[in-house]
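== Sequence entry ==
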Amino acid sequence: MAEFIRARSPEQKGQRLDQIKGAVRSQFAERPYHEITLTTIADELGWSRANLYKYVSTKEEVFLLLTQDEMAAYFDALLTALPEGCGFSRETVAEVWAGIAGAHQEYFRLGDILSTIIETNVTVERLSEFKQAYYGHVARMAERLPPILGMRTERVHTLLMAIYYHAVGFVSGCWSNPLITQALELAGIERPAIDFRAEMRDFIGMCLGHYCA
């Protein structure tokens, strides 16, 4: 096992958390959520579980931090791709937004377990920080989208949620869960192919037509 040196400064603690999130991100790309444990995380890092407990208490805490990072990347990408005064048509916004969604599928995959699993086993302080970050992103989108799309500010959050939950549902269908694959093969069912980006483009376009009317 690699030598563990406890973080002494906020910068060092941030580095340790980045290492932990990196290990979880790597494992989540290859295996279902339930197969990831504090033990598998510690093993990948070369740490003991006791050392891991110095930074997080549950694996859900790590997943919440990871979700917060993915959420920030998604919204930052949207704001960059939809700059102030861009003058994009709704069709162009739908195409651009679908591309961003396609590039940030990990955010939506995490969303599949966010409210039912991740948020149920974290401290209220960590959850409060996460919610503050989320509503901060919503506020920025509420400033950016109305001038571009000609929509009312109070409808932005509902639009964001509609797109988010649709993406969560479809990205789950795109994820190749080995157990589901085996079950479909056993049942003699061919899994239908899903073009995530095309589906999101069409859905976002439909939503823009509704919320921007």
Observations:
- The first helix runs from residue 10 to 28.
- The mean pLDDT is 91.
